[in-house]
Amino acid sequence: MNSLNSLITSKTRVRLLTKFFVNPKNESYLRELAKEFNESTNAVRRELNNLSDAGYLKTGSSQNKVTYRANTDHPLYRPIQNIIRKSLGLESLVQMVLTRLGEVDRIVLIGDYARGYDSGNIEVVIIGNYLNDRFMSRMSRSIEEKIDRKVSFLVNTDYSQDGLVLYDKSNE
């Protein structure tokens, strides 16, 4: 994410954009975010207010707490989401999987990255037929070098947790 950090100098803002724009389902509140980012509530509040005032985030309420999530109606939502996903290497990962693994039906991001947390370990479920399992470990190392993050693949696995669908053949 070095290129994004050079564009946006506030690390807290980069973390918030990642949290909310990787997956539009992600929602959180101030104290939860401060704890997750290991930042002061004041620093997180300042950035939440800036992003909300600019219309990038929507606010709501749950159990007497103000919650935040991406404003998917904002005209810059898709471009920002694309920048965040590219900076995380998700676009490169999808392209490599589709071109090298065989008949891929679906690619689903799970774990920390699906929740918008840049932990350095990307977990992906790949569903399809006639997948080239032998090539997967080599491809995994290649992707890791390219995007500077660890990648774990699960093949044809049922995933019970909420995931973010990165590719679905039926939507083409």
Automatic annotation (TrEMBL):
InterPro entries named among the record's database cross-references: WH-like_DNA-bd_sf, WH_DNA-bd_sf
Top-level taxon of the source organism: Bacteria
Name the UniProt record assigns to this protein: Transcriptional regulator
Organism the protein comes from: Aureitalea marina
